[in-house]
Amino acid sequence: MKIVTLCGLSRGAGGIFYAVSSLCKEMKCDNGIDLQVFGRNDPYVESDRAVWGGVETSRFNAYGPLQNAPKLRCMLGAAAPDLTHMHGIWLDDQRATLQWQTKTGHPVVISPHGMLDPWALKNSAWKKKLVGALFANESLRRANCIHALCRSEIESIRAYGLTNPIALIPNGVELPALTSAPSPPTSGVKRKLLFLGRIHPKKGLEELLHAWAQTQCLKSKASSEWELLIAGWDDGNHLAGLKKLASQLDLSWSDDTPSSVLCPPSSDICFVGPQFGSEKENLLRSVDAFVLPSFSEGLPMSVLEAWSYGLPVVMTDFCNLPEGFVADAAIRVEPNRNSIAQGVGKLAARSDAELKAMGAQGRKLIEEKFTWPRISGEMKQVYEWCLTGEAPPDCMEFY
């Protein structure tokens, strides 16, 4: 089975990069799969090559607003895959894959990664309508299978008018070894609440800062015993606006270095910058809880990673992980300042034992549902169904 996967080759693709690289590494272990990955060139591709762990990757240059990639057509022809799996939509990759499918009749699987969700469609809506009319809608309609990460994404795919077979397969994470639980903070040392992800408006960071200011005004337990760490790469130059907002809200803030995650005692918020590899691991091991007040997600790798490290989570329904609320591994908030402030207050009110129990429930969820060997096995079954038309796997749903 010869598979070509199309996706971002570096951290520039955000969480999709980590999800797809982990899936491909797991699938590479299957001797029945010959796997290649094609992706656009960017400044981080070379430095992030090691993340792929020996999976064969090839890059192409892309130009213009749709990232036109003439070389990709040649690469697909030379590889002659039995099946193409595309991660993400709205760019020229999708048009190239459609052209390859039209020419050869070979099956295509598309993973939108939340890009058909209502909030995502409203963002640059006119551009997406134009691209949809040019090629994206036909590409989606002709896909042999669309891969959804969660039940909410299936509903979005159907609401877009697509009747394709859908495979419901979540993202996963690698399970880190857990060290002993950290001791309660000593006098004068605050607990740490972490946001880790793209610095982008859809993540609800402005609302989070307003909520944090609200806890300061109320002199709540969150303001007296917790500090907020914001980590991630600046997608679209939004970081400067967040720092300006923090100052306007009378929140003291500091920039920190990757080697340290302790805010100066006078700071309410620390912006700790992008965190990758061992730096990210050390950060996740050093904090006490995680927050993602997002307006729109596919299935956020950041929450899964937080649970894998045994962290309690504050998140919205738009993270599409309802099992976290059922298991009491997460506190539900809406993406507005009042709700986030209330959720953070509930977190801060919990005892050390209760926080530890929340984190343990999150870790259990990961162990049961979100490990890569299980997910890789389901994806292989989807590929086999696309190629043979035999009995569909249990993860498949039909219109």
Overall description:
With 399 residues, the protein is an alpha/beta fold. The protein folds into two domains: 2-172 and 371-397, Glycogen Phosphorylase B (Rossmann fold); 191-369, Rossmann fold (3-Layer(aba) Sandwich), CATH 3.40.50.2000. Helices cover 42% and strands 17% of the residues. The chain has 15 helices and 15 strands. Strands 3-2-1-4-5-6-7-15 form an eight-stranded mixed sheet, sandwiched between helices. A seven-stranded parallel sheet has the order 10-11-9-8-12-13-14, with helices on both faces. Strand 6, helix 6 (151-159) and strand 7 (166-168) form a beta-alpha-beta unit. Helix 1 (15-28) packs across helix 15 (372-388), helix 3 packs parallel to helix 5 and helix 7 packs across helix 13 (337-349). The chain is globular. The mean pLDDT is 91.
